[in-house]
Amino acid sequence: MAAALELVSSNKVFGGDLRKYKFKSAALGGLSANFNLFLPSQSATAKVPILFYLAGLTCTEDNGDVILLAQKGSFFEPAAANGIAILFPDTSPRGAGVAGEDDDWDFGTGAGFYLNATTPNYASHYQMLTHVTLELPQVIEAAGLPVDLSRQSIFGHSMGGHGALTLYLASQTNQYRSASAFAPICNPINCPWGQKAFKGYLQGGVEEAQDKYDATELIKKHKGPVNILIDYGTGDNFYKQGQLLPENFVAAAQGKDVTVRAQEDYDHSYYFISTFAADHVNFHAKFLRQ
Which of 69, 140, 161, 261 is 20 to 30 A from residue 274's alpha carbon, by CA? Predict the structure, then answer.
């Protein structure tokens, strides 16, 4: 049985409502979990499609909406125009009490990497793949919220871009109709962020991650059509440091319907995301309205 939702707050925005909910998460080992949900005005009369936004390292459920709201409305204005709900999960469990989970900014709290951990110390709580793909849709449905779960898509930034691409490509049920990403970690088995996460969360380390949690490896083997949009900035320091590796993804995706755009001089920040936010929401709208 899905856990009951508690409404924490609600704010009117672009004719719709931005709501914060919390609930006791079974996937995260019984910890309290928060998420934010934007419901457009169209949800007052009919169920609407839903777009999941996965945030990056150190972020919470608030980063994608509260920060971006201050920059030209960002996701909410095009989502309202298209009648699309947007759900913003947290980036990791909170307060799991695992030794060392708060030692580094790029691992542990705020850095769940949207995978299911298999190392004994993290496996009890760090089940972010299950939390995002199964648990959150279940609690939304159980609460009777006006969302059409037969029409889901997913996007994200940085670590969240990694999550969006891998959850989309690895889905055995074609759960998401489309995926997009801002400055995603495209080939994490070959970059420091990904290697650190996989060695810490997975008993099989990088080798275990290769077939499950690496978009570049997954796109090589993916059968059937894909609907993917990626933007990254050539001025992004993390791109320059070899953390993102979009060229590897492009090479692996030859012959597939993938659009990867190098945006000249843009960095890794929310200014970059807000500039192209409407492009991404409108991209998903093409598939969600069908």
Answer: 140
27 part of a folded domain: yes
Residue 1 lies in a domain: no
Query: What is the C-alpha separation between 9 and 22, in angstroms, rounded?
Result: 10
Nearest CA to 153 among 27, 40, 18, 51?
A: 51
Can 158 be counted among the known catalytic residues?
Answer: yes
| Residue of 65, 214, 231, 236 marked catalytic | 236
268 is catalytic: yes
pTM: 0.96
Domain with residue 205: its CATH number is 3.40.50.1820
Number of structural domains, the chain? Answer: 1
Can you give the residue range of the structural domain that contains 36? 6-288
Give 134-185 pLDDT, tens digit per residue: 999 999 999 999 999 999 999 999 999 999 999 999 998 899 999 999 999 9
